[in-house]
Structures are given as structure tokens and as C-alpha cells.
Prior knowledge:
It is a single chain. The chain has two domains: 1-80; 93-414, no CATH class. 71% of the residues lie in helices and 2% in strands. It has helices spanning 3-8, 10-26, 30-66, 82-92, 103-119, 138-146, 148-159, 163-185, 188-194, 199-205, 222-235, 247-250, 260-285, 296-317, 323-351, 356-362, 369-422, and strands at 208-209, 212-213, 352-353, 365-366. It has a two-stranded antiparallel ribbon with strand order 1-2. Strands 3-4 form a two-stranded parallel sheet. Helix 2 (10-26) runs antiparallel to helix 3 and helix 7 (148-159) packs antiparallel against helix 8.
Amino acid sequence: MTVFEVINNILKIAGDAFAGLITSILGAGGLADFVVMLVAALIICALCAVAFMGLTYAERKIVARIQDRIGPNQAGPYGVLQPIADGIKMFTKEDTTPAEADRWVYNLAPLVIAVFALLTYAVIPFAPGVVGTNLNIGVFYVIAVGSGSTVAILMAGWGSNNKYSLLGAFRTVAQLVGYEVPMLLNVLPVVMLSGSMSLVDIIERQTLGNGGNGIPFILVVPLSALIFLISGIAETGRSPFDLLEAESEIVAGFHVEYSGMKFALFFLGEYVNALAVSIMFTVLFMGGYAGPILPPYVWLLLKVAAVFTILMWLRGTLPRVRVDQLMSFNWKFLVPMSIVNVILIMIIGKVFVADPVTAQVNGGIAVPPLVQAMILFTSNVIVLLIGLLMVSRQARQLRLTEAEDLDRRAAHNKAAAAKVVAQ
């Protein structure tokens, strides 16, 4: 094995070496497998904790620069020790529990949200051969586990016995469950094009060889990628969709009664979920760890960093939307457009077939993969443009209606004032 191959596969080599060491000590069997899986889970948890610390620091510095501020600069050089200082503060902060709270539900909610956030990483492929479990329903697993945070937030809102917490929890039902619909609808095109729900197979479909054509799905179905990213931001409750914890309206929302490490677990859950959304976007639409020259894990880190930077950028620039705007945008724009897009992709995939054997067996026009990708890309852009034109027209009509209403009120007030003067 060459040096280049060792560098590219260092994660798999290290994992196999550790598994071999444990097997040689404990012998082949269930105990050795359990120890290997336990150590792998602990490593993933540790990496998520380190990523949580790094992302909080990076976001605070990036958003500070966007808003013409300095950001953390006191704890350590350039403020790099700020996450550690925050952790110490959380550990030493008083842990309070409301007197009338449902204690079991109240105390379990932070743990549940942290566990569900970490469970997502069990099926994520970090490099070739480096994946916790290559499930053939990996996409379904991620969506199902990601929904678990909704249950945890409902537990926090109900268990706190606080009206503001309960209001934040009810908004969870409306927002998170609502935005799962367009997220799922825009995963379907990726599943249809790759022919599998396995995340490893989806990555392989976007690479050269192994049945893939080397075209990332973001260049084939860009509309699905855009809606998936928007839905993912809403699913994690990040700005501009942070209605669950709108400080100006519901006093921090569902976690208002939490302090210390319990609050830190909610904070960890948010960032770990946001990181999971970035990784899933990278896997589904950007080819995951696939890329030339650089090692696979480096490509994955670069792509995920680029996607998470977009999330930070949006948080530092966009204002929070109203709850009615949030739900209208989902049910009146994203969901209808997603349904039309899925139906169109199904028709195009049936008519223009990239595999000549499939075209001969099932019918359809055999075309090169690049031609099929161009047709799908064009259809996505057309659907997006039509949707934007319809929204623009509706917004213009709404503005005209409001302007007419204002003019009518002004005329009424002027007539009333003239009548008063005449009397």
C-alpha cells in the first residue's frame, strides 16, 4: 500500500487496527463487537462535543464580523478559550427546577434532545468504509431520528409548567412538523435518482465509477437542494426561523426555565443538529466525501464547513420572520413547489433514461447521464422561476390592496375632519 493510499484511508486503517486489537484480546464474538461499538460511539460523542465548542466560537466570531463587532477576545488569544469558559460557567451555575414542574419530564427533556441529536451520526459515512452502520434505509433513519427533538422540546415545554414554555412547545409542533414535509419531499428526488436509501450508495452515485456519473445532485436537482437546506434550517430552529425561542415574544421559549448544564444540553442539541443538517446536505447533494486529490475526510470537512458557513451567514443577516409568514411560506410555497418538482422528476426520469438496459426493458428514451442531468436541472430552474413569479405577483397584488386601503382610510379621515370643521 502506497503512502497516498494510507493517507486517504487512514480512518479505516485505524478503525480496522483497533478492531483487530480488541478481537485479539477478547476473542471473536459478541463481547469484542460490543466494545468496538462502544468505543466508536464514545469517539463520535467526543467529536460532536469538540465540534460543538468549535462551532460556537466560529459562529460568534463570524457573526460579530458581519455585524461590525469584535466577538470573543478575552478568554485566551483571540478568545479561543471562550467555549471552555462557557463550559465552566455552565457547570458552576445554579441548577434550578420550578416548584410545580413535572420533574421526570422536565429533567429528561435535555437528555432526550442530546441523545436524538447524537443518534443521527450512527449512519453518516465519514470516509469510504468509515460508517457506523450502513443501513439500506439510512435516509429514512436520519429523518425519523431527527424528528425526535420535537418530542424533547414538547417535554421541556410541558414539564416546565410555564405558559411561555408551553407556547414555545406548541410552536414546535407547528414549525418542526410542518417543515418535515418539504424536507422529506425533496429527499425523494435523490432517492429516485440514486435508486437507494443508503447514504453510502447515494454518495457512490455521485462519484465516477461504481455506477455513478460523477455529477453531484446539487447540479441535477438544485431546487430540491435549496428547499432541503431551508427546511433543515427551520428544523433546527435557527435564525430566521428561531420562532421556538423568540426572546422578544416568548422569553426564550421552551427552555426558559432551564439553567446550567440542562440549558447547555439544549444548546448542544441545536448545534449538533445543525451540523447533522450540514452533513446530510453534503451527502445528499454535494457528493459527501467524494473529491479528487485530497483525502475523502478532508473533502467532507471542507464541504460541511462551507454549508455551515452559509447557516452562520444567514443568522447574521436575516431578521426573524413572523409566525404567520413562517407557516404560509411552508404550506403555500415550499410544499406545493416540492410536490410539483417531485412529479416532474418522476416523469422525466421515466421518459429520459440514463441506463440503456433499463430503457430497453421498461421503455423510455435512452440518453447519456449528462443529458438527463441537464434536462432535470432545466426543469428545476423552470419550476423555481414560475414559483417566484407567482409569489411576486401575489405580493404585488397584496401591496396594491394595502395601498388602496390606506388611501381609502385617508380619504375617510379627511372627509371626517372637513365635516368637523364645517360644524
